[in-house]
Amino acid sequence: MDLTRMGANRKEVRTTAFVDREPRISIDPKSGSIKLSVQYADGMGTQGQYDYTVTITPSDLTAILSAISVERTAFQPGELQTCLGVSAAILLRLLSAASALPFQLAPTDARLKFQAAKEKLAAKRASEA
User: What is the rounded CA–CA span in Å between residue 16 and residue 111?
Assistant: First the structure.
């Protein structure tokens, strides 16, 4: 993730806060907003370091996905198509989520506890035999 700024009326100077930083990504379960956070980055020409947060709302995400879906480079060999290809399984999971299909994509806590108890019982039986 890169973050730069440029004056709206004076386009001659671009100031960079950071380049090639991996943001910490979190999702607010109530609002569905996605937060991208980068900590301890330069202050774009000021003294000190700052924490930056970008919040993407669900409607922002819809706009991003819509823009990507009509972008010609998504359908032609190149970096964007390669990235989408690598993300095919992720995109398929999102398609399932969007269609509201009744698939259990991730085990519930109860299922994980049941599986752990089952494995523990199997190990106990194996040690007794």
Answer: 47
